[in-house]
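Example (one chain per record):
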Amino acid sequence: MAASIYPQFPPHLDLEQEANILSTLRDWSIAHGLTVRPAPSFVSKEVDPGGVLAVTAPVSLFPSPFPETAFNDGLLIQKAYNELYAAIARDEPWLEGIVKEIVEVDDFIEKLWNVHTLVKKENYVQDLTLGLFRSDYMVHIDPSSWSPMPQIKQVEFNTISSAFGGLSSQVSKLHKHLLATTAYPPDSVLQQGTLPDNSATASLAAGLAAAHAAYGASKSKDQLPCCVLFVVQGQERNIFDQRHLEYELQSKNIPVFRMSFSDTVSLTSIPKDNSSRPLIYKPPHSPDVAYEVTTVYLRSTYAPTDFPDESSWEARYHLERSAAIKCPSILLQLAGTKKVQQVLAMPNSPHLSRFVPDESTADDIRKTFTAIYPLDDSPAGKEAREIALSENSAGYVLKPQREGGGNNIYRKAIPSFLKSLGSEDKWKGHILMELIEPPAQRNTLFRDGQVSSGEVIAELGVYGTCLWRSGGEVLHNEEAGYLLRTKGKESEEGGVAAGFGALDSVCLIDV
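Predicted structure:
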């Protein structure tokens, strides 16, 4: 962790002040849906056999200071990132070249690509794709600079199941409520003007609504009513985050349904006598009513555990070949692999300019990159292998082509992990990324009924929405609010749903 650039913060709380904040926080969170289903380690199945309980989501007691210039940089560059990843997903030959480098050692990526090729053989019937993105950053201070200024450096770019948009809007409102009701002691850092609004819920829902509208009229012979379908994991603990988006869409008179991915084949169908291949959904609570799905929003299928058997892959193929707009398509999901991020970020890489011809915009994107290396047989890959097996690995993180948190290998654990893989051919399924060392700061976190205070690390996520045609026309492109996740400095991972960190909001400061 780098030296602190932040003011003394947060203010000290006496016992009465902390008790008041915690009481207000718990009640406000339950009343406003800043909640999750409790983990079994917190509330056992014996206590809650029906899975009906909800508890306050992991949150910080205070908003965390964040450099205003760095925050604004993240918001301003998001639309360019949206267009970059839309362009990558449209460039199938280029993406195929990237995918082929890792399919030999990654069965999951290989099977995703196989689904795409199967649909391609019979021709795609939908040329629209929707991306609900999140670009994650940490604040970085260049120690070699005479006048170091805080910059954002990208941790990763998410193209599937970019979570917490619904809850991030609520935690921003929570911190504003605590400030407005004088729960916080007077502090020069905490002012109403330093807590920015967060439009994530409304903006992400607006992206889904744009896709729903762009789908057009029903393609069914009987002109069915249309809906948006959320495809989710079974026993989803983060359900309320998703519900906020559903309710926002429903407030626009857009029918929304939820379906577990495992129920895809039993609850949806594609008429064999309709070459347009509309995806038909029949709610299990009302099986006599059929809806045509305009947009499939995948909050699942990003991990191998979502595919326990071959029928799961049949279900993913079933969705991909349909006329529904996919969020994301297989190609867009593959565009979000760590290998793509590494290829774009390589020094002197020609690939970024392929997708972003405007040099000024490409430079702005390039400034957010940190050093990322392959672990293949290229000169850069061989150099990275030496680093990964040496004491210098303490400054790096090893990442597989996975989403969802809890998958990365950090610092001195890297050499032994690589050796445990056996054949060095398997190493190419990972990338080696230089760790970003953010400035030190402090906060207090509330998680599973426990309060912990100390040094923390904050990670900013900026949401974006983009809708485009395969021919290149962009119909919708917007920055869509933000997420701040904070974790104890001793925690390497930052995923809230995966059991790390807490939801937070930004308190803007000048540095």
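Caption: The chain has 15 helices and 21 strands.
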